[in-house]
Amino acid sequence: MCIFCKIIAKEIPSNIVYEDDEVLAILDLAQTTKGHTLVMPKEHYSDITEIPFEKLSHLMDVTRTLAQRINDRLHANGFNILINTKEAAGQTVMHMHVHIIPRYDENDGIKIEFSENKFDMQSILELIKG
Ligand code: AMP
Ligand code: ZN
Questions:
Q1: Which of 1, 11, 93 most suits a substitution to test ligand 1, by most atoms within 8 Å of the C-beta?
Q2: Ligand 2 center to residue 18 CA distance, Å?
Q3: Is 95 a catalytic residue?
Q4: Ligand approaching nearest to the C-alpha of 84
Q5: N or C: which end of the chain has fewer CB within 10 A?
Q6: Do 116 and 69 form a contact (C-beta atoms < 8 A)?
Q7: In the sheet where 98-103 sits, what is the strand order?
Q8: For the purposes of burial, counting CB atoms within 10 Å of the CB of 104, is it exposed (0-12), middle (13-18) or buried (19 or more)?
Q9: pLDDT < 50 positions in the chain
């Protein structure tokens, strides 16, 4: 059983923020910012490519509601919603989950920077478009 399945089965303690039949939300141990929360399906899917659409839809609905509530109650000024998918993208727990990371100000310890590169966009489009 993966670590999140053990948390869902209550074999490992966690700080539960929200729970329903399909979804569990817990405080991330790391607390990257105050209120950093993880939302996960109770069924084990390794990443976002595996979870069926209806379940993803409900999960994202819960995520949005919780993000708004966390934002309001903790007096944040916004939030990042993050889904790391596979090792190359920084996924360390292979049980699909969504990060809610409340944001406070420019000194809250997080910097998401998009570096700029010059790739040939035409050939990229040809690869991506249907
Ligand atoms: P990711 O890198 O997207 O796979 O994120 C995994 C997250 O799970 C990290 O932010 C960890 O801090 C968090 N995490 C790992 N184990 C636990 C745990 N037992 N309880 C709460 N959060 C955890
Ligand atoms: Zn699992």
A1: 93
A2: 18
A3: no
A4: 1
A5: C
A6: no
A7: 16-19, 23-27, 37-41, 98-103, 78-82
A8: middle
A9: none
